[in-house]
Amino acid sequence: MNRIDHISGHTYHGRKGGIENAFRYSIDYILLDPEARPDTPFLFSMNRVNAMYWRDRDHGGEPRKGQGAAWLRAKFDEMGVTQPARLELLTQPRVLGHVFNPVSFWFCFDAGEQLYAVVAEVTNTYGTRHSYLCNNSGFAPIQPTDRIVSDKLMHVSPFQKIEGTYEFRFDHRPERIGVWIDYGRKAGGLIATLTGPRAPLTNRAILWSLLRRPFGARRAFFLIVWQAIKLKIKKARFVPFRTAPVPDQPISRSRKP
User: Fold this and answer.
1) Cβ 99 vs Cβ 57: under 8 Å
2) Domain-by-domain residue ranges, the chain?
3) Is the pTM of this model over 0.70?
4) Chain center to CA of 66
5) I need a labelling partner for 213 at 20 to 30 A (CA). Which of 29, 95, 127, 185 fits?
6) How far, in Å, CA of 65 to CA of 62, rounded?
7) Which domain of life does the UniProt lineage start with (predicted)?
8) Which residues of 58-85 are buried (b: 16+ CB within 10 A; e: fewer)?
Protein backbone atom coordinates (compact mmCIF):
# COMPACT_ATOMS: atom_id res chain seq x y z
CA MET A 1 0.00 0.00 0.00
CA ASN A 2 1.82 3.07 -1.28
CA ARG A 3 -0.66 5.65 -0.08
CA ILE A 4 -2.56 6.65 3.04
CA ASP A 5 -6.32 6.45 2.73
CA HIS A 6 -8.85 8.69 4.42
CA ILE A 7 -12.12 7.15 5.60
CA SER A 8 -14.68 9.88 6.21
CA GLY A 9 -17.20 7.51 7.71
CA HIS A 10 -19.73 6.95 10.43
CA THR A 11 -19.80 4.98 13.63
CA TYR A 12 -23.01 3.62 15.13
CA HIS A 13 -23.55 2.25 18.64
CA GLY A 14 -26.83 0.71 19.67
CA ARG A 15 -27.41 -0.70 23.15
CA LYS A 16 -29.28 -3.99 23.57
CA GLY A 17 -31.36 -4.89 26.61
CA GLY A 18 -33.87 -3.16 28.86
CA ILE A 19 -32.40 0.36 28.64
CA GLU A 20 -32.24 1.59 25.06
CA ASN A 21 -29.65 4.05 23.81
CA ALA A 22 -28.18 4.60 20.35
CA PHE A 23 -26.08 7.17 18.51
CA ARG A 24 -24.49 7.69 15.12
CA TYR A 25 -21.56 10.06 14.63
CA SER A 26 -19.36 11.08 11.71
CA ILE A 27 -15.72 10.20 12.21
CA ASP A 28 -12.31 10.36 10.48
CA TYR A 29 -10.12 7.28 10.16
CA ILE A 30 -6.97 6.63 8.18
CA LEU A 31 -5.77 3.38 6.63
CA LEU A 32 -2.01 3.03 6.24
CA ASP A 33 0.83 0.56 6.03
CA PRO A 34 2.69 1.25 9.32
CA GLU A 35 5.92 -0.25 7.96
CA ALA A 36 5.99 1.80 4.76
CA ARG A 37 6.94 5.41 4.28
CA PRO A 38 4.67 6.66 1.49
CA ASP A 39 4.52 10.19 0.20
CA THR A 40 2.19 12.18 2.44
CA PRO A 41 0.24 15.43 2.10
CA PHE A 42 1.96 18.52 3.50
CA LEU A 43 -0.43 18.62 6.49
CA PHE A 44 0.12 14.96 7.48
CA SER A 45 3.20 13.28 8.98
CA MET A 46 4.25 9.88 10.31
CA ASN A 47 6.05 10.00 13.67
CA ARG A 48 6.34 13.77 13.49
CA VAL A 49 4.05 16.52 14.77
CA ASN A 50 1.77 18.11 12.19
CA ALA A 51 -1.81 19.32 11.84
CA MET A 52 -2.73 15.64 11.44
CA TYR A 53 -0.25 12.86 12.19
CA TRP A 54 0.27 9.25 13.24
CA ARG A 55 2.79 7.76 15.70
CA ASP A 56 4.07 4.20 16.17
CA ARG A 57 3.98 4.54 19.94
CA ASP A 58 0.22 5.13 19.95
CA HIS A 59 -0.25 1.48 18.92
CA GLY A 60 1.01 -1.96 19.84
CA GLY A 61 1.53 -2.55 23.56
CA GLU A 62 0.59 -0.10 26.28
CA PRO A 63 -1.06 3.19 25.30
CA ARG A 64 1.52 5.94 24.59
CA LYS A 65 4.31 3.35 25.02
CA GLY A 66 3.59 1.24 21.97
CA GLN A 67 6.03 -0.20 19.45
CA GLY A 68 3.72 -0.24 16.47
CA ALA A 69 4.05 -3.09 13.98
CA ALA A 70 7.15 -4.45 15.75
CA TRP A 71 4.95 -5.33 18.76
CA LEU A 72 2.43 -7.15 16.59
CA ARG A 73 5.11 -9.16 14.81
CA ALA A 74 6.73 -10.11 18.13
CA LYS A 75 3.38 -11.30 19.50
CA PHE A 76 2.70 -13.36 16.37
CA ASP A 77 6.07 -15.09 16.86
CA GLU A 78 5.22 -15.81 20.51
CA MET A 79 1.81 -17.22 19.53
CA GLY A 80 3.11 -19.24 16.59
CA VAL A 81 1.08 -17.27 14.06
CA THR A 82 2.41 -16.87 10.51
CA GLN A 83 3.88 -13.44 9.94
CA PRO A 84 1.92 -11.18 7.57
CA ALA A 85 3.52 -10.30 4.26
CA ARG A 86 1.89 -6.89 4.65
CA LEU A 87 0.01 -4.94 7.32
CA GLU A 88 -2.59 -2.20 7.19
CA LEU A 89 -3.73 -0.24 10.22
CA LEU A 90 -7.19 1.32 10.42
CA THR A 91 -7.15 3.99 13.12
CA GLN A 92 -7.93 7.56 14.04
CA PRO A 93 -5.01 9.97 13.54
CA ARG A 94 -3.78 12.61 15.93
CA VAL A 95 -5.37 15.97 15.12
CA LEU A 96 -3.66 19.06 16.58
CA GLY A 97 -2.00 16.64 19.03
CA HIS A 98 -5.23 15.06 20.27
CA VAL A 99 -6.05 11.36 19.94
CA PHE A 100 -8.31 8.76 21.50
CA ASN A 101 -8.81 5.41 19.78
CA PRO A 102 -11.49 3.20 21.36
CA VAL A 103 -10.59 0.57 18.76
CA SER A 104 -8.07 0.28 15.93
CA PHE A 105 -7.72 -2.64 13.53
CA TRP A 106 -4.58 -4.32 12.19
CA PHE A 107 -5.37 -6.06 8.87
CA CYS A 108 -2.93 -8.89 8.13
CA PHE A 109 -2.37 -10.08 4.55
CA ASP A 110 -0.49 -13.14 3.30
CA ALA A 111 1.84 -13.29 0.31
CA GLY A 112 -1.17 -13.79 -1.96
CA GLU A 113 -2.79 -10.56 -0.65
CA GLN A 114 -5.47 -12.55 1.17
CA LEU A 115 -6.75 -11.12 4.46
CA TYR A 116 -6.15 -13.95 6.94
CA ALA A 117 -6.21 -12.22 10.34
CA VAL A 118 -7.34 -8.98 11.97
CA VAL A 119 -6.19 -7.74 15.36
CA ALA A 120 -8.74 -5.50 17.09
CA GLU A 121 -6.80 -3.19 19.43
CA VAL A 122 -9.25 -1.99 22.10
CA THR A 123 -8.39 0.91 24.44
CA ASN A 124 -10.79 2.01 27.15
CA THR A 125 -11.33 5.42 28.72
CA TYR A 126 -9.29 4.31 31.77
CA GLY A 127 -6.14 4.10 29.64
CA THR A 128 -5.81 0.32 29.46
CA ARG A 129 -5.66 -1.86 26.36
CA HIS A 130 -6.35 -5.39 25.19
CA SER A 131 -6.20 -6.82 21.67
CA TYR A 132 -8.24 -9.59 20.07
CA LEU A 133 -6.80 -11.79 17.30
CA CYS A 134 -9.61 -12.55 14.85
CA ASN A 135 -9.19 -15.38 12.36
CA ASN A 136 -11.01 -18.27 10.73
CA SER A 137 -10.15 -21.90 11.38
CA GLY A 138 -6.76 -22.69 9.85
CA PHE A 139 -6.36 -18.99 9.07
CA ALA A 140 -8.53 -19.32 5.97
CA PRO A 141 -9.12 -16.02 4.12
CA ILE A 142 -11.58 -13.73 5.90
CA GLN A 143 -14.67 -12.97 3.84
CA PRO A 144 -17.19 -10.13 4.45
CA THR A 145 -19.82 -12.66 5.53
CA ASP A 146 -17.59 -14.43 8.09
CA ARG A 147 -18.45 -13.96 11.74
CA ILE A 148 -15.54 -14.36 14.15
CA VAL A 149 -16.21 -14.74 17.87
CA SER A 150 -13.97 -13.71 20.79
CA ASP A 151 -14.64 -13.74 24.51
CA LYS A 152 -14.81 -10.28 26.07
CA LEU A 153 -11.84 -10.01 28.46
CA MET A 154 -11.43 -6.32 29.30
CA HIS A 155 -13.59 -3.67 30.93
CA VAL A 156 -14.64 -1.13 28.30
CA SER A 157 -17.97 0.54 29.04
CA PRO A 158 -18.72 1.31 32.71
CA PHE A 159 -22.26 0.10 31.97
CA GLN A 160 -21.30 -3.36 30.68
CA LYS A 161 -19.86 -6.29 32.63
CA ILE A 162 -16.87 -8.42 31.59
CA GLU A 163 -18.90 -11.30 30.24
CA GLY A 164 -20.22 -12.52 26.93
CA THR A 165 -18.64 -12.41 23.48
CA TYR A 166 -17.76 -10.12 20.62
CA GLU A 167 -18.82 -11.20 17.14
CA PHE A 168 -16.66 -9.46 14.54
CA ARG A 169 -17.30 -9.02 10.82
CA PHE A 170 -14.89 -7.30 8.42
CA ASP A 171 -15.41 -5.99 4.89
CA HIS A 172 -12.12 -4.73 3.43
CA ARG A 173 -12.42 -3.53 -0.15
CA PRO A 174 -10.41 -1.15 -2.38
CA GLU A 175 -13.30 1.33 -2.35
CA ARG A 176 -14.62 1.07 1.22
CA ILE A 177 -14.17 -0.30 4.73
CA GLY A 178 -16.76 -1.91 6.98
CA VAL A 179 -16.40 -3.27 10.51
CA TRP A 180 -19.28 -4.65 12.58
CA ILE A 181 -19.04 -5.74 16.23
CA ASP A 182 -21.96 -7.46 17.94
CA TYR A 183 -21.36 -7.67 21.67
CA GLY A 184 -23.71 -10.12 23.35
CA ARG A 185 -24.21 -11.14 26.96
CA LYS A 186 -26.97 -12.67 29.07
CA ALA A 187 -28.88 -9.45 29.65
CA GLY A 188 -27.92 -7.00 26.96
CA GLY A 189 -24.89 -5.97 24.95
CA LEU A 190 -24.55 -3.60 22.02
CA ILE A 191 -24.00 -3.28 18.29
CA ALA A 192 -21.07 -1.14 17.06
CA THR A 193 -20.22 -0.37 13.45
CA LEU A 194 -17.65 1.60 11.48
CA THR A 195 -18.28 2.14 7.77
CA GLY A 196 -17.08 4.53 5.12
CA PRO A 197 -15.58 5.00 1.65
CA ARG A 198 -11.84 4.98 1.02
CA ALA A 199 -10.11 7.86 -0.75
CA PRO A 200 -6.50 9.09 -0.87
CA LEU A 201 -5.65 11.38 2.05
CA THR A 202 -5.19 14.93 0.76
CA ASN A 203 -4.54 18.37 2.23
CA ARG A 204 -8.08 19.33 1.24
CA ALA A 205 -9.54 16.37 3.14
CA ILE A 206 -7.44 17.25 6.20
CA LEU A 207 -8.55 20.90 6.15
CA TRP A 208 -12.18 19.87 5.79
CA SER A 209 -11.82 17.49 8.74
CA LEU A 210 -10.23 20.26 10.83
CA LEU A 211 -13.18 22.51 10.10
CA ARG A 212 -15.84 19.89 10.83
CA ARG A 213 -14.11 18.09 13.72
CA PRO A 214 -11.29 20.36 15.01
CA PHE A 215 -10.39 18.07 17.92
CA GLY A 216 -10.41 14.92 15.81
CA ALA A 217 -10.42 11.69 17.79
CA ARG A 218 -10.52 13.58 21.11
CA ARG A 219 -14.06 14.53 20.13
CA ALA A 220 -14.93 10.82 20.40
CA PHE A 221 -13.90 10.84 24.05
CA PHE A 222 -16.26 13.70 24.92
CA LEU A 223 -19.07 12.08 22.96
CA ILE A 224 -18.54 8.87 24.96
CA VAL A 225 -18.76 10.87 28.19
CA TRP A 226 -21.98 12.49 26.96
CA GLN A 227 -23.50 9.09 26.23
CA ALA A 228 -22.45 7.89 29.70
CA ILE A 229 -24.29 10.83 31.25
CA LYS A 230 -27.41 9.93 29.27
CA LEU A 231 -27.19 6.30 30.43
CA LYS A 232 -26.77 7.43 34.04
CA ILE A 233 -29.89 9.57 33.72
CA LYS A 234 -31.71 6.52 32.35
CA LYS A 235 -30.55 4.64 35.49
CA ALA A 236 -28.32 2.13 33.73
CA ARG A 237 -26.29 0.08 36.19
CA PHE A 238 -22.73 1.38 36.69
CA VAL A 239 -19.95 -1.25 36.85
CA PRO A 240 -16.92 0.10 38.83
CA PHE A 241 -13.59 -0.31 37.05
CA ARG A 242 -11.93 -1.71 40.16
CA THR A 243 -13.92 -4.93 39.70
CA ALA A 244 -12.52 -5.43 36.21
CA PRO A 245 -8.81 -6.34 36.05
CA VAL A 246 -6.89 -6.17 32.77
CA PRO A 247 -6.05 -9.60 31.27
CA ASP A 248 -2.52 -10.90 31.89
CA GLN A 249 -2.05 -11.56 28.17
CA PRO A 250 -2.18 -8.41 26.00
CA ILE A 251 -3.63 -10.31 23.02
CA SER A 252 -6.16 -13.16 22.98
CA ARG A 253 -7.28 -15.59 20.30
CA SER A 254 -10.73 -15.88 18.79
CA ARG A 255 -12.90 -18.86 19.53
CA LYS A 256 -12.69 -21.84 17.23
CA PRO A 257 -15.63 -21.92 14.81
Assistant:
1) no
2) 5-253
3) yes
4) 15
5) 127
6) 5
7) Bacteria
8) bbbbebeebebbebbbebbeeeebeebe
